[in-house]
Amino acid sequence: MGPWDVIHKVFSAEEHKKMSIHDKSNMFFQDYSLGPLFVQDVYLQVVPHAAKGDEKKTLELISKSSDSLCDGDLVDRIIRSTNAWSLLPVQERISSFKRYIQSVVRHLFLCIMRFYQPSVAVPFSDPKIRELLISLQKQNMSETFCKSDLMEGHFVGQIGFPQWLGKNSTTNKNDRLLQHLQMHMRLRISGSKRAVNLDYIQYIRDAVTRPLIKEGTDGVEKSVEAMTSYDLIREDLGDILSLTTWPGRKDPMSQVEAKVRKLSVVRLLERRRL
């Protein structure tokens, strides 16, 4: 069963009529890495039948489901950061069940953080803490109900691929670009990768592009000097433009005249490098 089939079953009111609580729980283990991303991406596209068209009730159901997703994500971070894969059943319970479990898990995390400083990694491998977490599985589930039961209904849109995956890929790419820039600039600055992102690259971009925009070919040497003063190479210019051009904003290089681009900064940088 593929992820699209699973997510349809998770929220379909018709499918729930022929599913037991164990069937619903087993859907979590079809793909416990990708499944939560699908749920987070599409649960707002579901019209819950329990709300019966009441907008206030719909918002309450969405709020409860959002809390459940957050609680499940907390446990997911614990599992992946400490390789505590035996806690997967705990994540399934916390992600899927509400009312009683939500208050228990939040109280649990508050208790843990009282005993350990925030700057120190919480030792979830500690036997006492693990025993406390796993004990959640043994709670009486007769007073709980599934998160998917909260939002069961019908979809008003298509089930798409999780947008988080694309955003995460872009984030990782930008992080690598910043790392390369920081390495090239290391002999000139003492700033961290974060400092390069927040305090340097936008001003370097302006120092490179403004002379080209205002002075044309006469400003090429100034642009090259701005790059070489930070030991930046020709590939870095494209990275800087990529990192500082936000959606909805124009690329500064698009304002540079065509004849100036022919006598480009990149070419002069390459000549100086040789």
UniProtKB/TrEMBL annotation:
Name recorded for this polypeptide: DNA replication factor RFC1 C-terminal domain-containing protein
InterPro entries for the chain: DNA_pol3_clamp-load_cplx_C (IPR008921), DNA_replication_fac_RFC1_C (IPR013725)
Keywords: DNA replication
Keyword Ligase appears in the UniProt entry: no
MF GO annotations: ATP binding; DNA binding; DNA clamp loader activity
Organism whose genome encodes this protein: Artemia franciscana (Brine shrimp)
Any Pfam family matching the protein: RFC1
Domain (DNA replication factor RFC1 C-terminal): residue spans on this chain: 137-261
